[in-house]
Amino acid sequence: MKINTQGEGEKRGRQQKHHTQKRRISTDPPGRTTHEDRQLEVNTETHDRSFVIMLKKDESQRDTSKASQSAAGNDAILAAIAKHGAELSKITSLVDGLKKSVEGRLDAIDATLTSLQKKYRESERRFEDLDEAMSANDSRLAMLEASCKELQVANTLLKAKVNDLEGRSRRLNVRIVGVKEGGEKGNPTDFVAKLLPELLGHENFSRPIKIDRAHRSLRPKPQPNERPRVIIAKVHNDRDVFDILRLSRQRSPLLYRGDRVPIFPDYTAEVSAKRQAFAGVRKRLTDAGAKCSLRFPAKLQVDYNNTSMTFISMDIGGVRLSSFSGLGGGGRGSINGNFSHFQ
Predict the structure, then answer these.
(1) Is 324 exposed, middle or buried (0-12, 13-18, 19+ CB in 10 A)?
(2) CATH code of domain 268-343
(3) Residue 15 region, left (φ>0) first, then alpha (ψ -120 to 50), else beta?
(4) What is the pTM of this model?
């Protein structure tokens, strides 16, 4: 910018000098002396130099002014740059702080995710183990269910067999109720052998009743004012057992020293419950004129009009025995009607 200004000044000076010379040549009168010409040339040159100096000075002032303005503009730009730099530094600092905070949080999240992944893999492994165990347990459970069904069937059969064996082992037993404590005087076997003929009549037995063993029921000895324990006696001959039970029903009530002493067969709880189920219908049938009897273990035999039927349950052919209400008519609720249905 400055070099161009100086060039223009020199150019203008040369142009001015050239115009001056031309003016001088054109205005000089002919015949002027050489000294005057020289003096004129000197003056012209001096004037040109002064003019050039003034031009250069003006150009220098302009350059200085422009430089000052440029320096002021540069200072403003530098100040703005410095301000923006400070703001940028603050922003950079904030970004760095935010970056560190985010990095810290990301590290924590990464650690948490790593822990969760580990737990997830552990849970997945456990679920796989549980799935395998459940599959194995399902197989075992199926086998156990099948085995349990077999055992249930076998248990039912064994239970029935045990009840039957226990009931048969008691078929020769009789239960004597109501004899006061101490009446047997320490020898219940001989006491029962003498008591039975005394209660039922000596004339009804052609030979002495043989008792294998006898004892009181297995419970604590009662107080004097309490009910005495039952005497359980095993008779040696089954024919004697049949006669004892038959005579006890025929000669009821039996008395011993002023106390009633009934005699019953010795049944298990299961057999007693089954036989007790026939008690109500048996009484109604007997009152209606039918002959009823219970055979071991729990079989109801009904005889009527030369017809005999045996029942092992209260429900036979969809008809309950408790629906029997009378002998005649042949209706659904009569013995004739039910017998014809069962036949």
Answers:
(1) buried
(2) 3.30.250.20
(3) alpha
(4) 0.51
Top-level class of domain 171-266: alpha beta
Q: How far, in Å, are 62, 235, 297 from residue 172 at the CA level?
A: 154, 6, 13
Among residues 191, 156, 157, the alpha carbon closest in space to that of 176 is found at 191
Cα-based distances in Å from 318 to 150, 314, 341: 30, 10, 10
Dist. CA 23–CA 48, nearest whole Å: 14
CA-CA distance, 157 to 169, in Å (whole number)?
Answer: 18
Output 127-130 pairs: Cβ under 8 A, ≥24 positions apart: none
Find where tokens 């650690």 sit: 111
* Top-confidence range, 41-50, 251-260, 317-326: 251-260
Counting every residue written for the chain, the total comes to 343
Amino acid identity, residue 182? Answer: G
User: pLDDT at residue 322 above 60?
Assistant: no
Distance CA 84, CA 93 (A): 14
CA neighbor of 267 nearest in space, from 196, 188, 175, 189: 175
* DSSP H or E stretch at residue 200: helix 188-200
Residues 274/298, Cβ–Cβ less than 8 Å: yes
Burial level of 139, CB count in 10 A (0-12/13-18/19+)? exposed
Question: What is the Cα–Cα distance from 93 to 95, expressed in whole angstroms?
Answer: 5
* 29/43 Cα distance (integer angstroms): 18
* Residue-level pLDDT at 176: 94
